[in-house]
Design brief:
Blueprint lengths: L14 E6 L5 E4 L7 H29 L5 H31 L1
Antiparallel strand pairs: 1-2
Helix pairs in contact: 1-2
């Protein structure tokens, strides 16, 4: 993930969006303010992804506490945890970039 602030042709900062392209590349938004329709949609998606990450983490903790957990279950939990961590890190980078703008 990119840790620097991306800028558009007017030197306005770009917002890293909480989703990627079909081939995994980051998506950015050029918007003058946080109240645009796409900005609000990105905020909603971030909230959903963070909620999903919390759910996955809680489920994984429960699974790991079970001594009889099977390899397939543990592998599934590991895959979901890596997806959730990727989402959370992308959100953190995006929010960190917006904090630097202030």
């Amino acid at each position: 993930m990119v840790n620097m602030v991306m800028r558009d042709g007017t030197d306005a900062p770009l917002r890293l969006l909480p989703w990627t392209t079909a081939d995994g590349r980051p998506c950015y938004l050029s918007a003058q303010g946080p109240d645009s329709r796409l900005s609000r949609m990105a905020d909603e998606v971030e909230t959903e992804l963070l909620g999903s990450a919390t759910y996955v983490l809680d489920a994984a903790k429960s699974l790991l506490a079970e001594p009889g957990a099977r390899e397939r279950e543990l592998r599934f939990a590991g895959v979901r945890l890596t997806e959730a961590l990727g989402d959370v890190l992308r959100i953190a980078v995006s929010r960190g970039g917006r904090l630097r703008e202030e």
